[in-house]
Design goal:
Layout (H helix, E strand, L loop, with lengths): L2 E6 L1 H8 L5 E6 L14 E6 L4 E13 L4 H10 L1 H4 L3 H7 L4 E16 L9 E4 L61 H4 L7 H8 L3 H8 L4 H8 L3 H17 L2 E3 L2 E3 L13 H8 L5 H8 L9 H29 L2
Parallel strand pairs: 1-3
Antiparallel strand pairs: 1-6, 2-5, 3-4, 4-5, 7-8
Helix pairs in contact: 7-10, 9-12, 10-12
Bound molecules: zinc ion (ZN) (2 copies).
């Protein structure tokens, strides 16, 4: 399977993400990618011209045409008019093309936008063994300078053993994600998906192989969140965590034709409550992460056993953070 980077004008990218445009066409005078390079099952990263990657799709069918003439270009485009959504003025510029690739898209998903390093002007790039390295963004999706603190789930420091499996288009032979930035296959997904609380230390060490999860294990909890947590006893915390898990990820609603929790993937803030930190650290933040790390399918409510398991994971994080905090206070003689 190959990864492709397709650069698209915003209008066309919007149409693809809305599900109105389902075939991408690429015209050229000379033989150049994607002509001859796309296969069924390949992944396509959808990047806006001069902007971020905003979506991903899988190739369901691909058709190549050569020896074109203007009349044949018009004929082909008319045949797939509805799926192509090509504007007339755009087509007029392409009439003298010799080659055409039609790529039929399926499983189109919108992703939280991220930037990559791309300095040249190619409109299509084929990656054979890895996905393009993402650039760090701040929490609001802005590119930030190297000196500032920046965190995002696509970021990795692969050379330090901290990878990114977040929505990775790279899969191993069994279909489990490999690091999206270096391709390494180092997570014991099957053992994770057994969800045995006896393995809790193993689960945590696996989570911490991801830069993003590890960040939340290492980050300092804000003052408001820590003092709120310190006022509760262990039992009270347990009740709060369980409620939070049930409410944020436990119950699904019909939304955009899919069953998912309310604002799934965007519902957990980055500060203000120790449970938020814990949910990012333990991959209990959204149903996508829960499916990936804990092997629970999306599209249905969590059952009691699953809620209990995720609650205990979050509690483990909170206990550890509170213990570290208290030790720190004693050490500093406050
Ligand atoms: Zn990596
Ligand atoms: Zn998540």
């Amino acid at each position: 399977m190959k990864i492709h980077l397709a650069i698209l004008y915003k209008d066309y990218l919007d149409l693809i993400l809305e599900g109105k445009k389902t075939i991408e066409a690429r015209f050229s005078k000379v033989k150049c990618p994607p002509y001859g390079r796309v296969s069924i099952g390949d992944k396509i990263l959808l990047k806006e011209t001069g902007g971020p990657i905003r979506g991903e799709a899988t190739v369901s069918v691909v058709k190549y045409f050569d020896n074109l003439a203007p009349s044949r270009v018009v004929h082909i485009v008319n045949k797939y008019k509805e799926q192509l959504q090509i504007k007339d003025n755009f087509l007029n510029q392409k009439l003298d093309s010799n080659y055409l690739t039609l790529i039929f898209l399926k499983d189109v998903v919108e992703v939280s936008p991220y930037f990559i390093n791309k300095r040249d002007r190619r409109g299509w790039i084929v990656y054979y063994n890895h996905a393009p390295q993402s650039i760090q963004l701040d929490l609001f999706g802005n590119k930030v300078s190297d000196k500032e603190v920046k965190i995002n789930p696509y970021y990795s420091e692969c050379e330090n053993g901290l990878h990114s499996f977040f929505k990775s288009p790279l899969k191993n032979s069994e279909g489990y994600p490999r690091c999206r930035n270096c391709g390494k296959d180092i997570i014991h997904w099957k053992k994770l998906h057994i969800r045995d609380l006896k393995n809790i230390d193993f689960v945590i060490s696996e989570l911490r192989k991801e830069w993003w999860r590890n960040y939340w294990w290492e980050v300092e909890i804000d003052e408001k969140a820590i003092s709120h947590a310190l006022r509760k006893n262990s039992n009270e915390l347990y009740v709060l965590v369980r409620k939070r898990i049930e409410k944020s990820v436990g119950i699904v609603y019909e939304f955009r034709g899919r069953k998912q929790p309310y604002r799934d993937g965007y519902q957990i803030p980055y500060k203000g409550n120790i449970i938020y930190y814990a949910q990012h650290a333990t991959a209990t933040c959204c149903r996508k992460c829960i499916e990936c790390w804990h092997g629970i399918p999306q599209g249905r409510n969590l059952n009691n056993e699953e809620i209990e398991y995720l609650t205990m994971l979050v509690m483990k994080y909170i206990r550890r953070k509170l213990r570290d905090y208290k030790r720190g206070v004693i050490r500093n003689g406050k």
